[in-house]
Specification:
This protein is of the alpha+beta class. 53% of the residues lie in helices and 20% in strands. The strands form four sheets. A five-stranded antiparallel sheet has the order 2-1-5-4-3, with helices on both faces. Helix 10 runs antiparallel to helix 11. The chain is rod-shaped and about 210 Å long.
């Protein structure tokens, strides 16, 4: 990451280097060409000057005219800003525009002189010890009748040439700098134009990576980058469509798993829990994050389940089994295991579905007990009726005394059968109406219900010298079905009277408590052992079967009470201890304000 640089700073310096090198090369070649051209121009100019001087002095170049020639050179040289030197073929200087010819050394060894003596134009650049500076020399032969009569040499200081060249170099440098600056700006603009769509592509890719697949890149005019932008937009659209499909399917799967009553566990080949639903969390009383990713043996301490998981992972097809989770109470589980395979058919785990059938088992037991109990309850009176009828048929009908006694017994058992059937029909009717929500509730005073019950039970209470005491606010009212609630309280009071001793008291208490109406029936009877308290509301369940039948009960009274209370949206509770009496509490909805 530390060595990465932006594309702009990779392109721009490259452009700058290329521009600088190119301009520098052009400037160098241009300077060299200008220098050569200027030297050539200066040389040609000096040739022209030398030619003019040659025409002036060609017939006078000898010792006899030396003084006149020297004077001419000294006059003409400054006028044309040129040093003029006239040299005889021997190398002797006879005239010079800047120095005394007599003081000047022999020039026969000068390269420009040698070239001129040879009949050519002599050109040279060197340091002059006479004037003490760098000079450019051009020497022309002076021909007289085809022979070289002497040499005309003209020269200019190189400092002047250098000054002109420096001005030219300065102009070339200024132009080069201007070109470099302009090229740098243009390069920056071009680099930015190249980098801008790429930066946009980078930003778009980052947004795609962050999950914003609905974002679309702007398509630039550059063909290659435009094709890339279009490809990325197409990719984003396809990914968005696929992610939407996957998300929709995942949400549907989540909804299905969440709504399933069965517990679902997805387990890999190493027996690690990959996924669980809410039902599994409730079944094992463990949140999903504590189960997922861990071994099933670690998070679920159920040996039967471990064996079933091993069986499901080893099987090639769906396996089923029954598991019992021991506890208080026991829980009965139906287990289904299906192997999971990948696209290549390799086994990767198993799907385990656990269905808690404890309630079904309980209902099945209740149904079986109900069938057994109702059969038993009906068998006793039917057997008695049949026996006494057979006895009468065999001749006892002719015995007036026995006939009346037998008929009374038959009538008694017939009445018992009728009571059982009526209670069963009442219980069935209450259940059906509660399911169809046909039980009508209305605002009514609770005191009226309690007084009606007291009047109904007055006679049987007086027979056992039992006092019925009512404690209820006359204004206490709630949404009730007076007839059904009266029947429920009547059953409780009837039981209280039946199982209470002579001279005891049965309390009927109703009051508002914590936003509820609580109706309590309190007796001072024999009480109920703790092991029976959870089952006394079951059909035909009897704490003391012999005493219950002797008291004339059908075994359905408390079941009817429970269903009536449930139909009111309430609940019933019981507290009892042997020898200390019992308290049955009916809890109904909020009282009327």
């Amino acid at each position: 990451m530390g060595n990465r640089r932006k594309l702009l700073w990779q392109l721009y310096p490259s452009y700058l280097v290329i521009t600088f090198v190119s301009v520098a090369a052009i400037a160098w070649f241009a300077s060299a060409a200008v220098k050569t051209l200027y030297f050539q121009s200066t040389t040609d100019d000096l040739k022209a000057r030398a030619k003019l001087i040659e025409e002036i002095i060609k017939w006078q170049l000898d010792h006899d005219h030396a003084i006149a020639l020297d004077k001419l050179c000294k006059e003409l040289g400054p006028a044309i800003a040129t040093r003029i030197t006239l040299i005889l073929p021997s190398g002797k200087v006879i005239a010079d525009s800047h120095e005394d010819p007599a003081q000047m050394e022999d020039h026969s060894i000068r390269p420009e002189f040698k070239d001129a003596i040879a009949g050519n134009v002599g050109v040279a650049q060197r340091y002059s010890f006479s004037v003490h500076q760098e000079m450019m020399y051009v020497a022309l032969p002076v021909l007289e009748k085809g022979d070289v009569a002497g040499v005309v040499r003209v020269s200019v200081p190189m400092v002047e040439v250098a000054a002109v060249l420096n001005r030219i170099y300065l102009q070339v440098a200024a132009g080069s700098i201007a070109i470099v600056v302009l090229a740098a700006l243009v390069s920056l603009f071009i680099s930015h134009r190249i980098n801008k769509p790429i930066t946009a592509l980078k930003g778009g890719a980052q947004r795609f990576a962050e999950g914003d697949l609905e974002y679309r890149l702007e398509v630039p005019h550059t063909e290659e980058i435009a094709a890339l932008a279009e490809a990325m937009n197409t990719m984003a659209a396809q990914l968005h469509s696929r992610f939407s499909t996957v998300t929709s399917q995942r949400n549907e799967l989540e909804a299905v798993l969440s709504s399933m009553m069965e517990a679902v566990l997805v387990i890999d080949a190493s027996e690690r829990v990959l996924r669980v639903n809410q039902s599994a969390e409730r079944l094992f009383d463990t949140p999903a994050h504590r189960m997922e990713g861990r071994s099933v043996r670690e998070v679920i301490r159920r040996t039967d389940l471990h064996r079933f998981v091993e069986k499901a992972l080893a099987a090639d097809q769906t396996v089923e089994g029954d598991i019992v989770f021991r506890g208080a109470p026991d829980r009965f589980i139906q287990a289904h295991g299906t192997p999971l395979k990948d696209a290549n058919g390799s086994r990767i785990g198993a799907l385990v579905v656990l269905n808690d059938v404890t309630r079904l088992k309980t209902l099945e037991n209740i149904r079986r007990d109900f069938v057994t109990n109702v059969s038993h309850e009906l068998r006793t009176p039917i057997t008695s009726i049949k026996g006494f009828l057979e006895t009468l048929k065999e001749g006892a009908i002719d015995d007036p005394e026995n006939r009346e006694r037998f008929l009374d017994i038959i009538l008694k058992h017939t009445n018992r059968l009728n009571m059982i059937i009526e209670d069963l029909l009442t219980l069935s009717k209450i259940e059906q109406e509660a399911e169809r929500k046909e039980i009508h509730l209305e605002e009514a005073n609770i005191i009226n219900v309690l007084e009606a019950v007291s009047k109904t039970c007055k006679n049987i209470a007086e027979e056992k010298n039992i006092a019925l005491l009512i404690n209820c606010d006359e204004k206490l009212a709630g949404r009730i079905n007076p007839t059904l609630l009266e029947q429920a309280v009547l059953n409780l009071v009837d039981n209280a009277i039946k199982y209470s001793d002579q001279g005891s008291i049965v309390h009927l208490d109703a009051r508002a408590s914590d936003g509820e109406i609580v109706i309590r029936v309190v007796d001072q009877g024999c009480g109920i052992s703790r092991e029976h308290l959870d089952r006394i509301f079951e059909r035909f369940y009897r704490v003391d079967k012999a005493r219950s039948r002797q008291a004339g009960g059908t075994g359905l009274g408390l079941a009817i009470v429970k269903h009536i209370v449930n139909a009111h949206g309430g609940r019933i509770e019981v507290r009892s201890s042997p020898g200390e009496g019992s308290t049955f509490s009916i809890h109904l909805g909020r009282p009327k304000e």
